């Protein structure tokens, strides 16, 4: 579900980031969540200030290995 939301944001030319490192109780209090609900992730979504260039990707043969890792 989270992955679909992140992909949807990209499709709409929005920026987003999955955040899971936060104080759960503090976040629940800040969001005024009922006691039976626990926040598990934060997904800030918005318009990027600037659009970065795509990073070059290594060829698949450098990162995909079959049966054993090369010497």
Quote the beta fraction.
Answer: 5-15%
According to DSSP, the number of beta strands is 2
Mean pLDDT: 90
Uncertain runs:
none
Main sheet characteristics:
2 strands, antiparallel
Biggest sheet, spatial arrangement of strands: 1-2
Q: Pairing-aware structural class of the strands and helices? A: mainly alpha
Global geometry: extended
Task: Using the CA coordinates, give the radius of gyration.
Answer: 18 Å
Helix amount, in percent?
Answer: 25-40%
Distance between the termini: 39 Å
The number of helices is 3
Q: How would you spell out the order of helices and strands?
A: HEHEH
What secondary-structure arrangement, pairings included, does this model have?
Elements: H1 2-11, E1 15-16, H2 24-30, E2 45-46, H3 60-63
Antiparallel strand pairs: 1-2
